[in-house]
TrEMBL record:
<dbReference type="InterPro" id="IPR002818">
    <property type="entry name" value="DJ-1/PfpI"/>
</dbReference>
<keyword id="KW-0456">Lyase</keyword>
<dbReference type="InterPro" id="IPR050325">
    <property type="entry name" value="Prot/Nucl_acid_deglycase"/>
</dbReference>
<keyword id="KW-0315">Glutamine amidotransferase</keyword>
<dbReference type="GO" id="GO:0019172">
    <property type="term" value="F:glyoxalase III activity"/>
</dbReference>
<keyword id="KW-0645">Protease</keyword>
<dbReference type="InterPro" id="IPR029062">
    <property type="entry name" value="Class_I_gatase-like"/>
</dbReference>
<keyword id="KW-0378">Hydrolase</keyword>
<comment type="similarity">
    <text>Belongs to the peptidase C56 family. HSP31-like subfamily.</text>
</comment>
<dbReference type="GO" id="GO:0005737">
    <property type="term" value="C:cytoplasm"/>
</dbReference>
<dbReference type="Pfam" id="PF01965">
    <property type="entry name" value="DJ-1_PfpI"/>
</dbReference>
<protein>
    <submittedName>
        <fullName>Glutamine amidotransferase</fullName>
    </submittedName>
</protein>
<dbReference type="GO" id="GO:0019243">
    <property type="term" value="P:methylglyoxal catabolic process to D-lactate via S-lactoyl-glutathione"/>
</dbReference>
<keyword id="KW-0346">Stress response</keyword>
<dbReference type="GO" id="GO:0008233">
    <property type="term" value="F:peptidase activity"/>
</dbReference>
<feature type="domain" description="DJ-1/PfpI">
    <location>
        <begin position="28"/>
        <end position="211"/>
    </location>
</feature>
<dbReference type="GO" id="GO:0006508">
    <property type="term" value="P:proteolysis"/>
</dbReference>
Length: 226
């Protein structure tokens, strides 16, 4: 039976005191989308508000997967993202949250998103996120009251990377926040590929890690139904 993936994207288009333009970082959605598509999975999109999401890093459109996403079905489908509260969440085998700075704006709290992630994880589905996308995992509490990421091996955009990218624009340091909720944080060299699977939770450090997150999610999904 064909696997069903829900990609949940931010609706933010600016961040910080200087209103830095932002959105979903193109390769962080396009590369996993390509991996899921090649596996024959059905892919849907949802956003927090249901409004048309924004893309960042369009200057990277010469990358083959990025270009295919922009000119093919991917971007067309992302523009039709449904409002998260209307999605039939139990029909999905996995959810995935791409990064870009945008999730740092509307995903640190977002009660419905936290509920969706907790329930998806607890019913045995796969949860993935990359770069700043793991901010969606912050403040997610399971039914026993514990934080989802407590004791979990996690990767995200690192303090070192942020210091040389968008430190004046972000409201807090993601690596620090994840660690404070009990995550076992794994930082690789800045901008190098680093994706980690801990059970059914898959995270990645930066844009170079997005493909690996997608591949690890597929490996887990295939194992669950083997």
């Amino acid at each position: 039976m064909k696997k069903h993936i829900l990609i949940i994207v931010s609706n933010a288009n600016s961040i910080g005191p200087n209103n830095r333009r932002t959105g979903t970082f193109l390769p962080e959605v396009a590369h996993p989308y390509a991996v899921f598509s090649e596996a024959g999975y059905q892919i849907d999109f949802a956003s927090l508000t249901g409004d048309t999401p924004y893309l960042d890093a369009l200057n990277l459109a010469d990358d083959p997967d990025n270009l295919k996403f922009l000119t093919g079905k991917g971007w067309a489908d992302m523009q039709k993202a449904v409002k998260l509260e209307t999605a039939d969440l139990k029909s999905y085998d996995a959810i995935f949250v791409p990064g870009g700075l945008a999730p740092m704006v509307d995903m640190p709290e977002a009660p419905l998103l936290k509920k969706v992630i907790a329930e998806t994880y607890e019913r045995g589905a796969v949860v993935g996120a990359v770069c700043h996308g793991p901010v969606s995992l912050l403040n997610v509490k399971l039914s026993d009251g514990s934080y989802l990421i407590n004791g979990k091996n996690i990767a995200s955009f690192t303090t070192e990377e942020e210091d040389n990218y968008a430190r004046p624009d972000v409201p807090f340091d993601l690596q620090t926040a994840l660690t404070q909720q009990g995550a076992i944080f794994h930082a690789a060299a800045p901008w190098s590929a680093n994706s980690i699977a801990d059970g059914r939770l898959v995270t990645g450090q930066n844009p170079a890690s997005a493909k690996g997150v997608g591949e690890k999610m597929i490996d887990i999904l295939e194992t669950l139904t083997a």
